Write the structure tokens for this entry.
Amino acid sequence: MTSPTLRNLPRVASKNRHWLGLGSLLLGLFCWWLAARVSGLPAFILPSPSDVWTRFIKALLDGSLFVHTGVTLLEILLGLGTGVFLATVLGYLVAKSRALERALSPYLVASQAVPLVAIAPLLVIWFGPGMFSKMLICALIVFFPVLVNTVVGVRAVPPALHDLMRSLRASRREILIKLEVPAALPVFLGGLRIGATLSVIGAVVGELVGADSGLGFLINVGRGQYDTALVFVAVFTLIALALMLYGFVILLEKKFLNWQER
Amino acid sequence: MTVSKFPILTVQDLSVVFPDNNGGLNALDDVSFEVCPQEFICFLGPSGSGKTTLLRILAGLLRPTEGQVHFVRSQQPKIGMVFQQSNLMPWRTVMDNIKLPLELEGMGESKARVRAQEMIELVGLQGFEDNWPRDLSGGMAQRVALARALIHDPDLLLLDEPFGSLDAITRERMWTELSRIWQARQPVTDGPGKTVIMVTHSINESLFLADRVLVLTQRPGRVKLDLKVDLPRPRKEDIRYTPHFGKLARKLREAIE
Ligand SMILES: Nc1ncnc2c1ncn2[C@@H]1O[C@H](COP(=O)(O)OP(=O)(O)OP(=O)(O)O)[C@@H](O)[C@H]1O
Ligand SMILES: [Mg+2]
């Protein structure tokens, strides 16, 4: 009788953990509500959950939330796409050539030392308050983690597998497609996971500096009009966007890394 | 097995020096030998005597510092290689690992799968086609590696201590399987035939499998002894208790020092 009980143990535990997560979320919401209630602060300083909900419904119905979310999402996707593409190509080349690495490393290290938040205004001045400057900031912030992980991933391809491919007279293209891409994928996707989360930050920083649409713009509007509930709505939408992107990368990992040990 | 007297591979005055801090590390020194078609050759030598280095040169993975390798029939023979570790691609299933050489030759997917299935049966891995390498035992992984090395019908099979990581019983079973597979792949009538060059630490393994055993010295590796193994085939496990086997084993043991 003991063994079936034991075998059920892990499953029970993981179910419990699910409830724990949900429970702690509800508890947090309750604390927030309580704090708003007890402190007696006005809604423009600390809106209660129900204020935020009402504001959310309103923004949803008048269509503004859709528009601004769409703008930010587009900036994120364009920036993420550009940043990941450039970082992957350059990362592959750097991984293959020590000379290129040595030539580029001062720039790469220096680019890491530049606080992107501080030069975001500069980029907005140069490239205008439109979408392009946001896309650029987004791409820049995504670039480095993806580059580093691409380099590490490609360098970590086992030399013995290179020997195997060469003993079979594989072409460079075949080595890239059948060896280097799948072997580097786990580390690369790790970089993409970081990059996906950072890309949201990049877009919002750009919008906060200067924009006429997007969720960062909405935050500025809410702040200016003492519509703090709107700020909350925008922040929660941003969190949802970040989680969605993160979840998408996790999905990719589940699909392509199913050969790895859990 | 009739071994043709004309060599298919000649190796002349091979020397390899790896650069290091004090004047270079001499891994192989003046190694010369010839291999005839259909021959099964074993290299026996202590650790560090340059056995892996020699195989890498024969596979075209490393350029020797001096000397040359000459294949009589073609400049680039088709090569199948089994490495010291099984060296499977962890992101490919057993089936997909085995058919890799056929993919690289551009064979169609369905045809390649049929061939791979035959190889899987040859090495006794039916039912494991869709397993990941992480789920295989050491012996199973090494059999996958062997199947992968054989599937594209190579002219030259290079084996680098392929059974080194196996337990004694599995290893002996693999010896029998390997000599069976190797003999089954020889042409019935007169043809070029398949040549095997295998590296090993084990005297028994070399005598069980080889037509000739070449003993390498401690670093730098030189050919110290070239011994013809005239034991009848097929060889069964109990051949090692015959007096002739004992005599050959003693010669090898003395050469290894
Ligand atoms: N790429 C390399 N660069 C520098 N030195 C090397 C390289 N490859 C091998 N060596 C050296 O050459 C010598 C012979 O190595 P090799 O791997 O051929 O020995 P081996 O006979 O296969 O040994 P083992 O039985 O342990 O596998 C060793 O001393 C090794 O350190
Ligand atoms: Mg070796």
Summary: Chain A has two domains: 1-40, 47-261.
